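Journal club prep — side note

Before the paper discussion, L.F. wants everyone to see what a predicted structure for a comparable chain looks like in token form. Sequence:
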Amino acid sequence: MDIKNYIASGILEQYVLGLLSEKENSEVVHMIDLHPEVAQHVLTLEEGLEAYAQAQAVQPSAGFKNTMLTNIRLEKEKAGSSTKETKKVIQDSAVAKNDQDQPATVTGPGRNDTHTLIFWRRIAYAAAVLLLFSLYLNLYYGNRGQKQLEANQQLQQEKQLLNADKQALAEKLARSENNIQLLSNPAIKQVAMKGVNKHDGLKALVYWNKADGNVYLASNDLPAVPQGKVYQLWAIVDGKPVDLGLYTPQKAATTQKMKAVSSKGQLQAFAITLENAGGSAAPTMDQMFVMGAPA
């Protein structure tokens, strides 16, 4: 058994307050005998409760005690005075035995006074114990609630990260499956485009389905586009450029479906130019980056 967890469970506080059953008390006593740290904790709790109760004890004022004692005597006299004659007999007896009863009279109020003081001290002690126990429970369960809240928040953050990773993995898997399907299709032809003019070293890759004319931009290493510019893919069919759509390198990092090439005419090459945002009706020839012809 983890002694630290046992001490932190709150059962020792209930033991000190007398709130446990006989069986539970026996178990706590057994733990006290076995583990010195448990015994020390119980001793600390008892000393703390006693000190707190003594500090909070309130002694009734002298006027309050006198009033209580007077009311008690009046009730006794009222109960014993049903007739004047009986009252006189009692008074005469009291006078006759005055000397004999005097010590008892002196002692009686003293005992009542002591009992009253003990009574109020017990009340104060019980209130102090309950207050301390309530504060302990508030602190204990408050800390547990805060820790649970922090743990829930951490779990929520981890769940969000896992969901994001799961989504990214799903997208990557979908791209991979799409590429596999493209490569495994016998009608698909891979066309590599290479840098032209001052853009030597640049590359781009497209997949062209000769059966239905669909074109897919698979990858490229073109630089990021300047602000207000966009890349545009072209097909050269029978010597004339045909617009196949716009894209940015970020989008082209995945397999992106472009516009289809018409089956009419002979496709001679693919090319990419840098155009103003929104694209162009005709390619800007001095802004051509890459170009390639199907084998």
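L.F.'s comment for the group: The beta strands are 188-195, 203-209, 215-220, 229-237, 240-247, 256-257, 267-276, 288-292. Keep this in mind when we get to the figures.
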